[in-house]
Write a sequence for this structure.
């Protein structure tokens, strides 16, 4: 069993601290210290210099949001928020992500859609992933030259032309994705002939709030997906947590989706693969697949399907990915056409038509 990462567990409940510690240590994660609130967490982190912190949101003296803000200023450390599985918890969690937290996880013992053992495995996996996150804040922007890796051949590419009529974009992301997706969508012009599907690994209680945030941040009209929802030019659907989003129909620039409440052989729900594969099978107009930061390999099968259907594939580069898991697995398929820094992805979508 792998050792590490060195972890500090922060929660005002002694029972919850013990439960989280037991889960992590049984999964081979080393818990080096615990703290009962944000103020104590700052002192403990400064003393033990951990690889990762798990942080409760609601705590006395100093809550998790303020603690993350202080931590990122005083002792930057990758932080995973453990949030209540509620709409209120979603609001607070997004505030913590804005403050600098890397990712979040529904608290053990909450109402979750996966079994207890699977939830415990996922928590351990997420802590390990967050511990490896790059929180240096370095960003690459401007008219950077991208590298085309399709078929394993590196070539210099530059955006040319404009977006093709009736272009559909499918964006997949996980760890670090909420901020990455927002930055991509907010950079897309509202006047282009685009319709966008977003698949972000996120629990059901959070995706509606995520869609609202995206809608406020960009020129496109963004909504959480519902079963049978239709979108056209200038519209975006965000996959609902706990259900796959499948494209079932496409005609005259409008597409329709179905929500599926079953695994479909995937280890996450919603799955990027399900949406990308169904889009590739259904849409006969221009199609672009985008893989952003995230752990795991979801999307690798989907990019193959889009590429085989004649679509383009864009992957976020390692330097700007919080976790270079999903983009790396996508690139390993040999189907990625363009690798771009996060702040150039929107330009690649709009200007990459040939």
């Amino acid at each position: 069993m792998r050792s590490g990462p060195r972890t500090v567990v922060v929660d005002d409940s002694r029972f919850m601290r013990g439960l989280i510690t037991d889960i992590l240590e049984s999964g081979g994660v080393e818990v080096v210290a615990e703290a009962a609130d944000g103020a104590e967490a700052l002192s403990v982190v400064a003393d033990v210099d951990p690889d990762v912190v798990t942080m409760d949101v609601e705590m006395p003296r100093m809550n998790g949001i303020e603690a993350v803000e202080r931590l990122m200023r005083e002792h930057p450390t990758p932080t995973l928020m453990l949030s209540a599985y509620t709409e209120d918890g979603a609001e607070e969690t997004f505030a913590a992500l804005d403050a600098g937290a890397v990712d979040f996880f529904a608290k053990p013992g909450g109402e979750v859609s996966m079994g207890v053992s699977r939830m415990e495995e996922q928590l351990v996996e997420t802590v390990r992933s967050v511990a490896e996150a790059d929180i240096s804040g370095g960003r690459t922007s401007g008219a950077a030259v991208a590298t085309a890796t399709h078929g394993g051949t590196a070539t210099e590419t530059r955006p040319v032309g404009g977006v093709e009529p009736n272009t559909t974009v499918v964006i997949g992301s996980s760890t670090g994705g909420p901020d990455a997706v927002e930055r991509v969508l907010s950079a897309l012009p509202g006047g282009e002939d685009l319709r966008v599907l977003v698949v972000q690994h996120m629990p059901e209680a959070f995706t509606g709030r995520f869609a609202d945030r995206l809608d406020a941040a960009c020129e496109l009209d963004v909504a959480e997906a519902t079963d049978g929802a239709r979108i056209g030019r200038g519209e975006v659907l965000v996959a609902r947590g706990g259900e796959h989003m499948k494209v079932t129909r496409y005609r005259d620039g409008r597409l329709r989706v179905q929500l599926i409440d079953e695994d479909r052989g995937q280890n996450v729900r919603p799955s990027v693969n399900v949406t990308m594969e169904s889009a590739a099978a259904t849409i006969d107009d221009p199609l672009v697949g985008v893989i952003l930061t995230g752990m795991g390999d979801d999307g690798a099968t989907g990019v193959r399907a889009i590429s085989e259907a004649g679509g383009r594939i864009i992957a976020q580069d390692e330097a700007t990915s919080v976790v270079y898991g999903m983009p790396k697995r996508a690139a390993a398929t040999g189907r990625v056409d363009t690798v771009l820094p996060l702040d150039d992805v929107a330009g690649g979508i709009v200007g990459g038509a040939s």
Notes: Confidence is low (pLDDT under 50) at residues 110-114, 138-161. Residues 6-131 form a domain with the Rossmann fold fold (CATH 3.40.50.2300).
